[in-house]
Design a protein that fits this description.
single chain, alpha+beta, two-stranded antiparallel ribbon, two-stranded antiparallel sheet, about 20% helix, globular
Length: about 90
C-alpha cells in the first residue's frame, strides 16, 4: 500500500504512481504511438509550474519525443477518445 496522491509535496511521480499510471495507460498516450511504459515519462496534464499536482489523475505516460513536443509552445496536446491525446501545431 503506497500513497498515490502526493499533491504539491513532491514534483516527480513516485514509483508506485508510475506503476499505477503505466498499468492504466499501457505506454505513450499520444494517438498512433506504441512506445511502452518503460520508454515513457510521466507528464503532468496541468503543468507543475502552473499549480499542477503529483497525482495519478494528473499524470499520463508520454514518450520522450512527444514529451518534448508538448513542452514546446508551438504545439498543444488535445484530449481524444479513450484516454488518448493528439499533439497539434498551434496556428
Amino acid at each position: 500500500s503506497q500513497p498515490l496522491d502526493l499533491g504539491r509535496t513532491r514534483r516527480f511521480h513516485s514509483t508506485a504512481q508510475r506503476i499505477a499510471i503505466g498499468l492504466r495507460d499501457k505506454g505513450c498516450v499520444v494517438e498512433d504511438c506504441d512506445q511502452p511504459p518503460e520508454m515513457s515519462h510521466i507528464h503532468h496534464l496541468q503543468q507543475w509550474s502552473l499549480g499542477g499536482t503529483t497525482t495519478v489523475e494528473d499524470g499520463v505516460m508520454i514518450c520522450s519525443r512527444h514529451h518534448t513536443l508538448v513542452h514546446d509552445r508551438r504545439y498543444e496536446m488535445i484530449p481524444r477518445l479513450q484516454g488518448k491525446y493528439r499533439i497539434i501545431r498551434r496556428t
